[in-house]
Amino acid sequence: MDTFRLRVIAPDRIIFDSRAAEVILATNTGLVGILPNHAPLLTGLDIGILKIRTNELWSVVAVMGGFAMVHDNDITILVNEAENAKEINLQEAQEIFQLTQTKVSQADGRKENIEANLNLKRAKARLDAIQEGIKEGTAS
Amino acid sequence: MASSIACGSALKMATFEGLSAKSLGLRGVEPAGSVDVLTWESVGRREGRGSSIVTAGLKDLRDRIATVKNTQKITDAMKLVAAAKVRRAQEAVVNGRPFSENLVKVLFNVNEQLTTEDIDIPLTTVRPVKKIAIVVITGDRGLCGGFNNYILKKAEQRMAELREIGVSYTVVSIGKKGNSYFRRRPQIPVDRFLDAGNAPTTKEAQAVADELFALFVSEEVDKVELLYTRFVSLIKSDPIIHTLLPLSPQGEVCDISGNCVDAADDEMFRLTTKDGKFSVERETVRTETVKFSGVLMFEQEPVQILDALLPLYLNSQILRALQESIASELAARMNAMNNASDNAADLKKSLSISYNRQRQAKITGEILEIVAGSTVTV
Protein backbone atom coordinates (compact mmCIF):
# COMPACT_ATOMS: atom_id res chain seq x y z
CA MET A 1 0.00 0.00 0.00
CA ASP A 2 1.25 3.45 -0.82
CA THR A 3 2.04 5.54 2.19
CA PHE A 4 3.74 8.78 3.07
CA ARG A 5 5.61 9.89 6.15
CA LEU A 6 3.46 11.96 8.49
CA ARG A 7 4.64 13.97 11.46
CA VAL A 8 2.41 15.94 13.77
CA ILE A 9 4.47 18.13 16.10
CA ALA A 10 3.41 20.29 19.06
CA PRO A 11 5.68 22.86 20.76
CA ASP A 12 6.57 20.45 23.55
CA ARG A 13 6.34 16.98 21.98
CA ILE A 14 5.92 14.95 18.83
CA ILE A 15 2.35 13.71 18.61
CA PHE A 16 2.58 11.44 15.58
CA ASP A 17 5.54 10.22 13.59
CA SER A 18 4.77 7.33 11.36
CA ARG A 19 3.50 6.42 7.91
CA ALA A 20 -0.07 7.04 6.79
CA ALA A 21 -2.15 6.36 3.71
CA GLU A 22 -4.35 9.45 3.70
CA VAL A 23 -4.83 12.57 5.76
CA ILE A 24 -7.67 15.11 5.75
CA LEU A 25 -6.82 18.61 6.89
CA ALA A 26 -9.19 21.35 7.99
CA THR A 27 -7.79 24.51 6.51
CA ASN A 28 -9.31 27.95 6.76
CA THR A 29 -10.23 27.66 3.09
CA GLY A 30 -11.96 24.29 3.41
CA LEU A 31 -11.15 20.60 3.80
CA VAL A 32 -8.13 19.27 1.98
CA GLY A 33 -7.42 15.59 1.45
CA ILE A 34 -3.84 14.48 0.93
CA LEU A 35 -2.88 11.20 -0.75
CA PRO A 36 0.59 9.79 -1.41
CA ASN A 37 2.66 11.66 -4.01
CA HIS A 38 0.78 14.89 -3.55
CA ALA A 39 2.18 18.05 -5.10
CA PRO A 40 4.21 20.31 -2.79
CA LEU A 41 1.81 22.32 -0.68
CA LEU A 42 1.86 24.71 2.23
CA THR A 43 -1.35 25.49 4.04
CA GLY A 44 -2.51 27.03 7.29
CA LEU A 45 -4.76 24.97 9.53
CA ASP A 46 -7.79 26.19 11.35
CA ILE A 47 -8.94 25.06 14.78
CA GLY A 48 -10.69 21.86 13.77
CA ILE A 49 -10.19 18.17 13.22
CA LEU A 50 -7.48 16.21 11.50
CA LYS A 51 -8.19 12.72 10.20
CA ILE A 52 -5.43 10.21 9.60
CA ARG A 53 -5.92 6.90 7.79
CA THR A 54 -3.58 4.08 8.58
CA ASN A 55 -4.42 0.51 7.56
CA GLU A 56 -8.05 1.32 6.67
CA LEU A 57 -8.65 2.83 10.11
CA TRP A 58 -9.31 6.51 10.58
CA SER A 59 -8.01 8.20 13.71
CA VAL A 60 -9.34 11.61 14.57
CA VAL A 61 -7.32 14.37 16.24
CA ALA A 62 -8.59 17.75 17.40
CA VAL A 63 -6.00 20.39 16.48
CA MET A 64 -5.87 23.94 17.76
CA GLY A 65 -4.50 25.70 14.70
CA GLY A 66 -1.19 25.40 12.92
CA PHE A 67 0.03 24.64 9.45
CA ALA A 68 0.82 21.71 7.19
CA MET A 69 3.63 21.30 4.72
CA VAL A 70 3.53 18.64 2.02
CA HIS A 71 6.80 17.99 0.26
CA ASP A 72 8.35 14.96 -1.38
CA ASN A 73 5.87 12.44 0.08
CA ASP A 74 6.63 13.81 3.54
CA ILE A 75 4.01 15.73 5.50
CA THR A 76 4.94 17.89 8.46
CA ILE A 77 2.11 19.33 10.50
CA LEU A 78 2.86 21.83 13.25
CA VAL A 79 0.06 22.47 15.72
CA ASN A 80 -0.44 24.61 18.79
CA GLU A 81 -1.94 21.68 20.61
CA ALA A 82 -3.62 18.44 19.63
CA GLU A 83 -5.87 15.95 21.37
CA ASN A 84 -6.63 12.48 20.10
CA ALA A 85 -10.34 11.69 20.00
CA LYS A 86 -9.64 8.55 22.03
CA GLU A 87 -8.72 10.73 25.00
CA ILE A 88 -11.78 12.96 24.84
CA ASN A 89 -14.84 12.21 26.90
CA LEU A 90 -18.06 12.88 24.95
CA GLN A 91 -20.07 14.07 27.94
CA GLU A 92 -17.33 16.37 29.14
CA ALA A 93 -16.81 17.77 25.64
CA GLN A 94 -20.52 18.56 25.31
CA GLU A 95 -20.64 20.27 28.69
CA ILE A 96 -17.59 22.37 27.94
CA PHE A 97 -19.04 23.33 24.57
CA GLN A 98 -22.25 24.58 26.13
CA LEU A 99 -20.27 26.45 28.77
CA THR A 100 -18.23 28.27 26.14
CA GLN A 101 -21.38 29.14 24.23
CA THR A 102 -22.85 30.90 27.24
CA LYS A 103 -19.53 32.64 27.86
CA VAL A 104 -19.61 34.08 24.35
CA SER A 105 -23.08 35.53 24.88
CA GLN A 106 -21.96 37.00 28.18
CA ALA A 107 -18.71 38.41 26.87
CA ASP A 108 -18.26 42.09 27.52
CA GLY A 109 -15.70 44.12 25.65
CA ARG A 110 -13.39 43.34 22.81
CA LYS A 111 -10.83 41.40 24.81
CA GLU A 112 -13.40 39.11 26.42
CA ASN A 113 -15.01 38.60 23.04
CA ILE A 114 -11.77 37.45 21.47
CA GLU A 115 -11.05 35.09 24.36
CA ALA A 116 -14.56 33.66 24.47
CA ASN A 117 -14.71 33.03 20.74
CA LEU A 118 -11.34 31.30 20.80
CA ASN A 119 -12.48 29.00 23.58
CA LEU A 120 -15.71 28.29 21.73
CA LYS A 121 -13.86 27.24 18.60
CA ARG A 122 -11.63 24.95 20.62
CA ALA A 123 -14.52 23.35 22.46
CA LYS A 124 -16.30 22.80 19.16
CA ALA A 125 -13.20 21.16 17.68
CA ARG A 126 -12.99 18.78 20.60
CA LEU A 127 -16.65 17.92 20.38
CA ASP A 128 -16.49 17.39 16.63
CA ALA A 129 -13.40 15.21 17.09
CA ILE A 130 -15.03 12.83 19.56
CA GLN A 131 -18.24 12.65 17.56
CA GLU A 132 -16.32 11.91 14.38
CA GLY A 133 -14.18 9.43 16.24
CA ILE A 134 -17.24 7.55 17.43
CA LYS A 135 -18.57 7.50 13.86
CA GLU A 136 -15.31 6.06 12.56
CA GLY A 137 -15.29 3.52 15.35
CA THR A 138 -11.83 4.44 16.66
CA ALA A 139 -13.04 6.27 19.75
CA SER A 140 -15.81 5.89 22.31
CA MET B 1 43.37 1.59 104.70
CA ALA B 2 41.17 3.89 102.75
CA SER B 3 38.06 5.17 104.33
CA SER B 4 34.85 5.38 102.38
CA ILE B 5 35.27 7.56 99.39
CA ALA B 6 33.75 10.96 99.66
CA CYS B 7 33.22 12.52 96.30
CA GLY B 8 32.50 15.99 95.22
CA SER B 9 34.05 17.93 98.03
CA ALA B 10 37.18 19.91 98.40
CA LEU B 11 39.43 17.41 99.95
CA LYS B 12 42.76 16.97 101.47
CA MET B 13 44.96 15.38 98.99
CA ALA B 14 46.31 12.08 100.12
CA THR B 15 47.42 8.86 98.64
CA PHE B 16 45.19 5.96 97.79
CA GLU B 17 46.69 2.61 98.39
CA GLY B 18 50.07 3.99 97.70
CA LEU B 19 49.20 5.76 94.55
CA SER B 20 49.69 9.46 94.47
CA ALA B 21 47.91 11.81 92.17
CA LYS B 22 51.13 12.45 90.39
CA SER B 23 51.80 8.81 89.70
CA LEU B 24 48.36 8.57 88.18
CA GLY B 25 49.47 11.14 85.69
CA LEU B 26 46.96 13.77 86.70
CA ARG B 27 47.99 17.29 86.10
CA GLY B 28 46.95 20.31 87.98
CA VAL B 29 46.74 18.49 91.25
CA GLU B 30 48.64 19.81 94.23
CA PRO B 31 50.52 17.42 96.40
CA ALA B 32 49.17 16.40 99.76
CA GLY B 33 48.57 19.07 102.27
CA SER B 34 46.71 21.68 100.33
CA VAL B 35 43.00 22.25 100.33
CA ASP B 36 40.93 22.79 97.24
CA VAL B 37 43.54 21.37 95.02
CA LEU B 38 41.60 20.82 91.92
CA THR B 39 41.98 23.64 89.47
CA TRP B 40 39.03 23.34 87.11
CA GLU B 41 40.59 25.61 84.56
CA SER B 42 43.45 23.22 83.97
CA VAL B 43 41.09 20.48 82.89
CA GLY B 44 39.28 22.81 80.53
CA ARG B 45 36.07 23.24 82.43
CA ARG B 46 34.38 26.49 81.61
CA GLU B 47 31.03 26.25 83.23
CA GLY B 48 29.26 24.38 85.94
CA ARG B 49 30.67 22.78 89.06
CA GLY B 50 28.63 19.67 89.53
CA SER B 51 28.49 16.81 87.07
CA SER B 52 24.72 17.16 86.65
CA ILE B 53 24.97 20.38 84.62
CA VAL B 54 27.62 18.87 82.40
CA THR B 55 25.41 15.90 81.54
CA ALA B 56 22.49 18.11 80.53
CA GLY B 57 24.78 20.17 78.27
CA LEU B 58 26.08 17.00 76.70
CA LYS B 59 22.61 15.73 75.84
CA ASP B 60 21.63 19.06 74.34
CA LEU B 61 24.72 19.08 72.21
CA ARG B 62 24.11 15.50 71.12
CA ASP B 63 20.56 16.36 70.08
CA ARG B 64 21.72 19.43 68.22
CA ILE B 65 24.32 17.47 66.34
CA ALA B 66 21.70 14.89 65.35
CA THR B 67 19.36 17.65 64.13
CA VAL B 68 22.06 19.30 62.08
CA LYS B 69 23.01 15.94 60.59
CA ASN B 70 19.40 15.33 59.51
CA THR B 71 19.10 18.80 58.06
CA GLN B 72 22.26 18.21 56.10
CA LYS B 73 20.86 14.98 54.68
CA ILE B 74 17.73 16.81 53.57
CA THR B 75 19.58 19.68 51.91
CA ASP B 76 21.91 17.23 50.18
CA ALA B 77 18.94 15.29 48.83
CA MET B 78 17.21 18.45 47.67
CA LYS B 79 20.31 19.48 45.78
CA LEU B 80 20.47 16.18 43.92
CA VAL B 81 16.75 16.23 43.15
CA ALA B 82 17.11 19.73 41.74
CA ALA B 83 20.05 18.58 39.60
CA ALA B 84 18.01 15.67 38.24
CA LYS B 85 15.12 18.00 37.44
CA VAL B 86 17.42 20.33 35.53
CA ARG B 87 18.25 17.45 33.26
CA ARG B 88 14.57 16.91 32.68
CA ALA B 89 14.13 20.60 31.90
CA GLN B 90 16.98 20.25 29.44
CA GLU B 91 15.27 17.33 27.75
CA ALA B 92 12.09 19.35 27.49
CA VAL B 93 13.98 22.01 25.57
CA VAL B 94 15.45 19.38 23.27
CA ASN B 95 11.96 17.93 22.72
CA GLY B 96 10.81 21.33 21.59
CA ARG B 97 13.46 21.56 18.90
CA PRO B 98 11.59 19.70 16.08
CA PHE B 99 8.79 22.20 16.40
CA SER B 100 10.95 25.34 16.37
CA GLU B 101 13.21 24.07 13.61
CA ASN B 102 10.38 23.34 11.22
CA LEU B 103 8.63 26.56 12.13
CA VAL B 104 11.70 28.65 11.41
CA LYS B 105 12.21 26.97 8.04
CA VAL B 106 8.67 27.68 6.94
CA LEU B 107 8.73 31.22 8.38
CA PHE B 108 11.79 31.96 6.31
CA ASN B 109 10.22 30.65 3.13
CA VAL B 110 6.92 32.42 3.63
CA ASN B 111 8.69 35.71 4.30
CA GLU B 112 10.59 35.30 1.06
CA GLN B 113 7.25 35.39 -0.71
CA LEU B 114 6.03 38.46 1.06
CA THR B 115 6.51 42.09 0.23
CA THR B 116 6.26 44.58 3.04
CA GLU B 117 3.01 46.08 1.86
CA ASP B 118 1.28 42.77 2.16
CA ILE B 119 1.73 42.43 5.87
CA ASP B 120 -1.29 43.36 7.92
CA ILE B 121 -1.37 40.78 10.66
CA PRO B 122 -2.72 41.66 14.10
CA LEU B 123 0.20 40.12 15.95
CA THR B 124 2.80 42.19 14.12
CA THR B 125 1.10 45.59 14.30
CA VAL B 126 3.41 48.26 15.63
CA ARG B 127 1.42 50.92 17.45
CA PRO B 128 2.42 53.97 19.48
CA VAL B 129 2.96 52.59 22.94
CA LYS B 130 0.55 53.84 25.57
CA LYS B 131 0.26 50.73 27.72
CA ILE B 132 2.55 47.76 28.20
CA ALA B 133 1.79 44.31 29.57
CA ILE B 134 4.68 42.96 31.65
CA VAL B 135 4.72 39.18 31.99
CA VAL B 136 6.63 38.27 35.15
CA ILE B 137 7.72 34.64 35.47
CA THR B 138 8.60 33.49 38.99
CA GLY B 139 8.73 30.11 40.64
CA ASP B 140 6.18 28.20 42.63
CA ARG B 141 8.34 27.23 45.59
CA GLY B 142 10.95 28.84 47.80
CA LEU B 143 14.32 27.61 49.06
CA CYS B 144 15.97 28.86 45.91
CA GLY B 145 18.12 31.68 47.19
CA GLY B 146 17.54 35.06 45.60
CA PHE B 147 15.91 33.75 42.44
CA ASN B 148 12.40 35.08 42.93
CA ASN B 149 13.62 38.28 44.53
CA TYR B 150 15.81 39.19 41.58
CA ILE B 151 12.93 38.85 39.16
CA LEU B 152 10.55 40.87 41.30
CA LYS B 153 13.17 43.55 41.83
CA LYS B 154 13.73 43.76 38.09
CA ALA B 155 9.98 44.00 37.58
CA GLU B 156 9.74 46.89 40.03
CA GLN B 157 12.67 48.55 38.26
CA ARG B 158 10.95 48.27 34.90
CA MET B 159 7.70 49.60 36.30
CA ALA B 160 9.53 52.61 37.73
CA GLU B 161 11.18 53.23 34.36
CA LEU B 162 7.82 53.11 32.62
CA ARG B 163 6.25 55.45 35.13
CA GLU B 164 9.01 57.93 34.42
CA ILE B 165 8.38 57.99 30.69
CA GLY B 166 4.65 58.16 31.24
CA VAL B 167 3.72 54.73 29.94
CA SER B 168 1.10 52.82 31.88
CA TYR B 169 1.41 49.10 32.49
CA THR B 170 -0.34 46.00 33.69
CA VAL B 171 1.20 42.82 35.02
CA VAL B 172 0.57 39.23 34.05
CA SER B 173 2.04 37.21 36.88
CA ILE B 174 3.09 33.60 36.38
CA GLY B 175 4.21 31.54 39.35
CA LYS B 176 2.96 31.32 42.94
CA LYS B 177 5.76 33.41 44.41
CA GLY B 178 5.10 36.31 42.08
CA ASN B 179 1.36 35.89 42.55
CA SER B 180 1.57 36.27 46.32
CA TYR B 181 3.95 39.22 45.93
CA PHE B 182 1.57 41.11 43.68
CA ARG B 183 -1.50 40.12 45.68
CA ARG B 184 0.00 41.83 48.69
CA ARG B 185 0.51 45.00 46.67
CA PRO B 186 -2.91 45.97 45.35
CA GLN B 187 -1.54 49.27 44.06
CA ILE B 188 0.13 47.42 41.18
CA PRO B 189 -2.35 46.75 38.37
CA VAL B 190 -2.41 43.05 37.64
CA ASP B 191 -4.27 41.63 34.72
CA ARG B 192 -4.06 37.90 35.43
CA PHE B 193 -2.56 35.43 37.85
CA LEU B 194 -1.41 32.16 36.34
CA ASP B 195 0.39 29.14 37.71
CA ALA B 196 3.53 27.81 36.12
CA GLY B 197 3.80 24.26 37.40
CA ASN B 198 6.93 22.14 37.49
CA ALA B 199 7.04 20.99 33.92
CA PRO B 200 5.58 23.54 31.54
CA THR B 201 3.72 21.99 28.65
CA THR B 202 2.10 23.54 25.68
CA LYS B 203 -1.15 23.78 27.65
CA GLU B 204 0.36 26.25 30.12
CA ALA B 205 2.05 28.15 27.31
CA GLN B 206 -1.24 28.28 25.43
CA ALA B 207 -3.07 29.72 28.44
CA VAL B 208 -0.52 32.52 28.66
CA ALA B 209 -0.54 33.02 24.89
CA ASP B 210 -4.34 33.30 24.85
CA GLU B 211 -4.27 36.00 27.48
CA LEU B 212 -1.53 37.97 25.73
CA PHE B 213 -3.14 37.51 22.32
CA ALA B 214 -6.44 38.85 23.62
CA LEU B 215 -4.74 41.80 25.38
CA PHE B 216 -2.73 42.77 22.34
CA VAL B 217 -5.25 42.23 19.55
CA SER B 218 -8.03 43.99 21.45
CA GLU B 219 -5.60 46.90 21.68
CA GLU B 220 -5.80 47.00 25.46
CA VAL B 221 -2.02 47.01 25.42
CA ASP B 222 0.34 48.09 22.67
CA LYS B 223 3.36 46.04 23.65
CA VAL B 224 4.05 42.89 25.65
CA GLU B 225 7.31 42.39 27.51
CA LEU B 226 8.45 39.09 28.93
CA LEU B 227 10.51 39.16 32.12
CA TYR B 228 12.27 35.93 33.05
CA THR B 229 15.63 34.47 34.09
CA ARG B 230 17.69 32.79 31.45
CA PHE B 231 19.60 29.74 32.48
CA VAL B 232 23.12 31.06 32.01
CA SER B 233 25.12 29.94 34.99
CA LEU B 234 24.60 28.03 38.18
CA ILE B 235 25.74 30.93 40.29
CA LYS B 236 24.55 34.04 38.53
CA SER B 237 20.89 34.74 38.04
CA ASP B 238 20.25 37.64 35.69
CA PRO B 239 16.67 38.34 34.66
CA ILE B 240 16.18 39.61 31.14
CA ILE B 241 13.36 41.42 29.42
CA HIS B 242 12.26 40.37 25.94
CA THR B 243 9.80 42.12 23.73
CA LEU B 244 7.27 39.42 22.96
CA LEU B 245 4.63 41.37 21.06
CA PRO B 246 4.46 42.85 18.47
CA LEU B 247 6.19 39.99 16.69
CA SER B 248 8.43 40.68 13.76
CA PRO B 249 7.20 38.88 10.64
CA GLN B 250 10.61 37.25 10.33
CA GLY B 251 10.30 35.97 13.86
CA GLU B 252 13.21 37.88 15.35
CA VAL B 253 13.61 37.87 19.11
CA CYS B 254 14.38 41.30 20.53
CA ASP B 255 15.15 42.60 23.98
CA ILE B 256 13.95 45.99 25.15
CA SER B 257 17.13 47.80 24.10
CA GLY B 258 16.36 46.76 20.55
CA ASN B 259 19.02 44.08 20.18
CA CYS B 260 17.53 41.43 17.96
CA VAL B 261 18.52 37.86 17.38
CA ASP B 262 17.60 36.01 14.25
CA ALA B 263 14.85 33.44 14.62
CA ALA B 264 17.08 30.77 13.13
CA ASP B 265 19.58 31.14 15.98
CA ASP B 266 18.54 29.18 18.99
CA GLU B 267 20.48 28.90 22.22
CA MET B 268 20.16 25.70 24.16
CA PHE B 269 21.40 25.16 27.67
CA ARG B 270 23.06 22.06 28.95
CA LEU B 271 23.93 21.02 32.49
CA THR B 272 27.27 19.26 32.41
CA THR B 273 30.12 18.59 34.78
CA LYS B 274 33.45 20.31 34.63
CA ASP B 275 36.26 19.30 36.97
CA GLY B 276 33.83 17.29 39.02
CA LYS B 277 31.47 20.20 39.56
CA PHE B 278 28.24 21.07 37.84
CA SER B 279 28.39 23.79 35.22
CA VAL B 280 26.12 25.21 32.54
CA GLU B 281 26.94 25.41 28.88
CA ARG B 282 25.00 27.25 26.28
CA GLU B 283 25.36 26.40 22.65
CA THR B 284 23.92 28.29 19.75
CA VAL B 285 22.18 26.09 17.26
CA ARG B 286 21.50 27.59 13.89
CA THR B 287 18.71 26.17 11.80
CA GLU B 288 19.45 25.85 8.15
CA THR B 289 17.03 28.07 6.29
CA VAL B 290 17.06 26.85 2.75
CA LYS B 291 14.71 28.00 0.11
CA PHE B 292 12.40 25.15 -0.81
CA SER B 293 13.40 23.53 -4.02
CA GLY B 294 10.72 23.32 -6.59
CA VAL B 295 7.41 25.05 -6.60
CA LEU B 296 5.68 25.00 -3.30
CA MET B 297 2.02 25.74 -3.78
CA PHE B 298 0.54 28.05 -1.19
CA GLU B 299 -2.98 26.99 -0.45
CA GLN B 300 -3.76 30.42 0.90
CA GLU B 301 -2.19 33.82 0.44
CA PRO B 302 1.24 34.08 2.06
CA VAL B 303 -0.20 36.61 4.48
CA GLN B 304 -2.88 34.18 5.62
CA ILE B 305 -0.30 31.50 6.14
CA LEU B 306 1.84 33.88 8.16
CA ASP B 307 -1.27 34.59 10.19
CA ALA B 308 -1.41 30.88 11.03
CA LEU B 309 2.31 30.63 11.71
CA LEU B 310 2.79 33.51 14.10
CA PRO B 311 0.56 32.21 16.92
CA LEU B 312 2.62 29.03 16.78
CA TYR B 313 5.72 31.15 17.12
CA LEU B 314 4.24 33.04 20.05
CA ASN B 315 3.45 29.77 21.79
CA SER B 316 6.91 28.36 21.36
CA GLN B 317 8.53 31.57 22.61
CA ILE B 318 6.42 31.52 25.76
CA LEU B 319 7.10 27.83 26.32
CA ARG B 320 10.82 28.45 25.97
CA ALA B 321 10.74 31.25 28.50
CA LEU B 322 8.88 29.02 30.96
CA GLN B 323 11.39 26.22 30.45
CA GLU B 324 14.37 28.52 30.95
CA SER B 325 12.78 29.96 34.06
CA ILE B 326 12.26 26.53 35.58
CA ALA B 327 15.84 25.54 34.82
CA SER B 328 17.14 28.74 36.43
CA GLU B 329 14.99 28.17 39.49
CA LEU B 330 16.30 24.63 39.86
CA ALA B 331 19.88 25.84 39.50
CA ALA B 332 19.30 28.47 42.17
CA ARG B 333 17.82 25.80 44.42
CA MET B 334 20.85 23.56 43.81
CA ASN B 335 23.07 26.43 44.85
CA ALA B 336 21.09 27.33 47.93
CA MET B 337 20.93 23.73 49.10
CA ASN B 338 24.63 23.31 48.45
CA ASN B 339 25.41 26.29 50.65
CA ALA B 340 23.04 25.01 53.29
CA SER B 341 24.77 21.62 53.28
CA ASP B 342 28.16 23.26 53.63
CA ASN B 343 26.95 25.38 56.50
CA ALA B 344 25.45 22.33 58.16
CA ALA B 345 28.77 20.50 57.84
CA ASP B 346 30.62 23.42 59.43
CA LEU B 347 28.10 23.68 62.23
CA LYS B 348 28.27 19.96 62.90
CA LYS B 349 32.04 20.15 63.09
CA SER B 350 32.11 22.97 65.62
CA LEU B 351 29.34 21.36 67.66
CA SER B 352 31.22 18.06 67.66
CA ILE B 353 34.37 19.72 68.90
CA SER B 354 32.48 21.43 71.66
CA TYR B 355 30.72 18.19 72.55
CA ASN B 356 33.91 16.20 72.72
CA ARG B 357 35.58 18.80 74.83
CA GLN B 358 32.77 18.77 77.34
CA ARG B 359 32.64 15.00 77.32
CA GLN B 360 36.36 14.76 78.00
CA ALA B 361 36.13 17.38 80.71
CA LYS B 362 33.37 15.43 82.36
CA ILE B 363 35.37 12.23 82.30
CA THR B 364 38.44 13.95 83.65
CA GLY B 365 36.38 15.56 86.36
CA GLU B 366 34.91 12.25 87.41
CA ILE B 367 38.32 10.63 87.51
CA LEU B 368 39.65 13.45 89.60
CA GLU B 369 36.71 13.21 91.97
CA ILE B 370 37.22 9.49 92.35
CA VAL B 371 40.91 9.89 92.87
CA ALA B 372 40.47 12.75 95.28
CA GLY B 373 37.76 10.94 97.17
CA SER B 374 39.67 7.74 97.32
CA THR B 375 42.85 9.32 98.61
CA VAL B 376 41.25 10.61 101.76
CA THR B 377 42.99 8.82 104.41
CA VAL B 378 41.86 8.85 107.86
Automatic annotation (TrEMBL), chain A:
<keyword id="KW-0406">Ion transport</keyword>
<keyword id="KW-0793">Thylakoid</keyword>
<keyword id="KW-0934">Plastid</keyword>
<dbReference type="GO" id="GO:0015986">
    <property type="term" value="P:proton motive force-driven ATP synthesis"/>
</dbReference>
<keyword id="KW-0375">Hydrogen ion transport</keyword>
<dbReference type="Pfam" id="PF00401">
    <property type="entry name" value="ATP-synt_DE"/>
</dbReference>
<keyword id="KW-0150">Chloroplast</keyword>
<dbReference type="InterPro" id="IPR001469">
    <property type="entry name" value="ATP_synth_F1_dsu/esu"/>
</dbReference>
<dbReference type="InterPro" id="IPR020546">
    <property type="entry name" value="ATP_synth_F1_dsu/esu_N"/>
</dbReference>
<feature type="domain" description="ATP synthase epsilon subunit C-terminal">
    <location>
        <begin position="86"/>
        <end position="131"/>
    </location>
</feature>
<dbReference type="InterPro" id="IPR020547">
    <property type="entry name" value="ATP_synth_F1_esu_C"/>
</dbReference>
<dbReference type="InterPro" id="IPR036771">
    <property type="entry name" value="ATPsynth_dsu/esu_N"/>
</dbReference>
<comment type="subunit">
    <text>F-type ATPases have 2 components, CF(1) - the catalytic core - and CF(0) - the membrane proton channel. CF(1) has five subunits: alpha(3), beta(3), gamma(1), delta(1), epsilon(1). CF(0) has three main subunits: a, b and c.</text>
</comment>
<comment type="function">
    <text>Produces ATP from ADP in the presence of a proton gradient across the membrane.</text>
</comment>
<comment type="similarity">
    <text>Belongs to the ATPase epsilon chain family.</text>
</comment>
<keyword id="KW-0472">Membrane</keyword>
<dbReference type="Pfam" id="PF02823">
    <property type="entry name" value="ATP-synt_DE_N"/>
</dbReference>
<protein>
    <recommendedName>
        <fullName>ATP synthase epsilon chain, chloroplastic</fullName>
    </recommendedName>
</protein>
<dbReference type="GO" id="GO:0045259">
    <property type="term" value="C:proton-transporting ATP synthase complex"/>
</dbReference>
<keyword id="KW-0139">CF(1)</keyword>
<dbReference type="GO" id="GO:0046933">
    <property type="term" value="F:proton-transporting ATP synthase activity, rotational mechanism"/>
</dbReference>
<keyword id="KW-0813">Transport</keyword>
UniProtKB/TrEMBL annotation, chain B:
<dbReference type="GO" id="GO:0015986">
    <property type="term" value="P:proton motive force-driven ATP synthesis"/>
</dbReference>
<keyword id="KW-0406">Ion transport</keyword>
<protein>
    <recommendedName>
        <fullName>F-ATPase gamma subunit</fullName>
    </recommendedName>
</protein>
<keyword id="KW-0472">Membrane</keyword>
<dbReference type="InterPro" id="IPR000131">
    <property type="entry name" value="ATP_synth_F1_gsu"/>
</dbReference>
<dbReference type="GO" id="GO:0009535">
    <property type="term" value="C:chloroplast thylakoid membrane"/>
</dbReference>
<comment type="subunit">
    <text>F-type ATPases have 2 components, CF(1) - the catalytic core - and CF(0) - the membrane proton channel. CF(1) has five subunits: alpha(3), beta(3), gamma(1), delta(1), epsilon(1). CF(0) has four main subunits: a, b, b' and c.</text>
</comment>
<keyword id="KW-0813">Transport</keyword>
<keyword id="KW-0066">ATP synthesis</keyword>
<comment type="function">
    <text>Produces ATP from ADP in the presence of a proton gradient across the membrane. The gamma chain is believed to be important in regulating ATPase activity and the flow of protons through the CF(0) complex.</text>
</comment>
<dbReference type="Pfam" id="PF00231">
    <property type="entry name" value="ATP-synt"/>
</dbReference>
<keyword id="KW-0139">CF(1)</keyword>
<dbReference type="GO" id="GO:0045259">
    <property type="term" value="C:proton-transporting ATP synthase complex"/>
</dbReference>
<dbReference type="InterPro" id="IPR035968">
    <property type="entry name" value="ATP_synth_F1_ATPase_gsu"/>
</dbReference>
<keyword id="KW-0375">Hydrogen ion transport</keyword>
<dbReference type="GO" id="GO:0046933">
    <property type="term" value="F:proton-transporting ATP synthase activity, rotational mechanism"/>
</dbReference>
<comment type="similarity">
    <text>Belongs to the ATPase gamma chain family.</text>
</comment>
